[in-house]
Design goal:
28% of the residues lie in helices and 37% in strands. By secondary structure, it is of the alpha/beta class.
Length: 170
């Protein structure tokens, strides 16, 4: 695990002063570390899920690879206006305003059980919004997977009640 921790690069004052950005690029460019992260995710996927759902954009990296490995369908959650089909939208509050994400309206059959995956759990706002969106679209979130959890930001508080797994905690 130490090699995974060591591969996360911290960039101070990005995208704005006072923020410590956690860059996953060194990890994903290393084929062995990337493969190890996908293996760890796969070991934490419960039985009975039908699809992998990932949040734009870095979540797609892990979600697509995990869906391929597990031979499951992949559903993208995108920023508003990026999907050409009929969508379901969810707007949520950010520290500095609000954002809207969307999912294809036909992403799920009723009561499908899915996994949600993203690269980083920070404040939990986007993950909470994604869970709400998945449920509005007719599926149930069985588990949420993150590569990195930023423990000091208390993101778990916004997604209480969900089974959460993080490979790394910083």
């Amino acid at each position: 695990m130490k090699e995974l921790y060591d591969a996360i690069r911290t960039i101070p004052d990005f995208p704005k002063k006072g923020v410590l950005f956690r860059d996953i690029t060194p990890l994903i460019k290393n084929k062995d570390l990337f493969a190890k992260s996908i293996e760890l995710f796969a070991k934490n996927v419960p039985e009975g899920i039908s699809k992998i759902v990932a949040i734009e954009s870095r979540g797609f990296i892990f979600g697509g690879a995990l869906a391929c490995k597990l031979k499951k369908g992949f559903v993208p959650i995108r920023k508003f206006g990026k999907l050409p089909c009929k969508t379901i939208k969810h707007t949520y509050a950010l520290e500095y305003g609000e954002d809207t994400i969307e999912i294809p309206a036909d992403a799920f059959e009723n009561n499908e059980t899915v996994i949600l995956i993203d690269d980083v759990l920070a404040t939990g706002g986007t993950a909470s919004a994604a869970c709400s969106l998945i449920e509005q679209a007719g599926a149930k979130v069985k588990k949420i997977l993150f590569l990195v959890e930023l423990k000091d930001l208390n993101g778990r508080e916004k997604i209480k009640g969900y089974d959460i797994f993080s490979i790394l905690t910083l």
